[in-house]
Amino acid sequence: MQVVVIYLLVILGFAFLKRVNAYQSFLNGVENSFSTVKSVFPNVLAIILAIQIFANSGILELLQTWLPTRRLVPEIFIQCFFKPISWSSSLLVMTDIFEKYGVDSFLGELSSLLQGSSDTTIYVVAMYFSSIKMNKYGHSLLAGLLTDFATFVFTIIFAMLLLKM
Amino acid sequence: MSKIWYILIVVGIIVSIFTGHFEQLGEIILGSCSAAFDIFLKLALLILFWNGIFQIAIDSGLIKHITQFLKKPLSKIFPEVDPDSLVMEYICSNMVANMLGLGSAATPLGLKAFEELQHQNPHPERPSRSMVTLILVNVSTITLFPTTIIGLRTLYGGKSDLSLIAMMILVSTFSTIVAIVLDRIFYRIGKRKCK
Which of A30, A97, B16, B94 is a plausible cystine mate for B110, CB 3.0–4.6 Å? Predict the structure, then answer.
């Protein structure tokens, strides 16, 4: 957790040297992000409903029996599935894994790595192209999804080799 | 997303009838409201806090300083963009914001760069090479400091030691390298087809 303290010190130290009103900047930053926060809530509410129904239906136990290894659970693959589509959905699957298996467990750490590996591909591609009203995506979507897939495979193998049980 | 939402709910309900979980389903549906609020509160406070901190970094010019170091490596990835142009400035700032885990500040910068690239695009009906590269770099983002994930881990009572952060940096760097390599490969294939 010292990382957070160092990070904060660097930013505040630099602001002090440059004689910037750091207090006022902080207030402005918080104020301006209220609209972002507001737009997140409806998503969270809708997605939690769907995920809770799905995860508590008993389907995860059925899927578990199909997995070749005991170390992985279906939730990890659900998170991977959501990752390119919706940032908040995959994030919510991650917190679900935190609650169910523990943050510092193998699954909790693997889930954090997956979440940090890349951004919401389909969403980002759609947003960028709709901002200039173009509907030809070039190879961006295909290459982006292939990247996601390669990264998931790499992350899971990497975590299974390096992280403890 | 709308289809996925339907599928999750309908499949969940149907499966629960067969597995005998149907009785508790009503409780779970109503309970999901307060569960959503708990998670939202954690998430919202993190977003507000980090945006406040980052505003200090932006106002003090720290972001601009870091941007200078990125120009050289980035002009290799974007060979068709003039390294001293305004577009490059936007692309660099977008990268820095992404690296620091500041998605909400990175997006407007990325969109501005994208718009500028479209103005310079010789074939405005399809994306230019640099436009596709910009998107792929944004999709795969190198994260040096994953603010939201570290914050959520702490709020759920976990640790985030340096080794885990180092692994996150490694994984996100891997995805960016894959994205850039794939971008080059697709570009070559496309070029060959044109000939």
Answer: B94
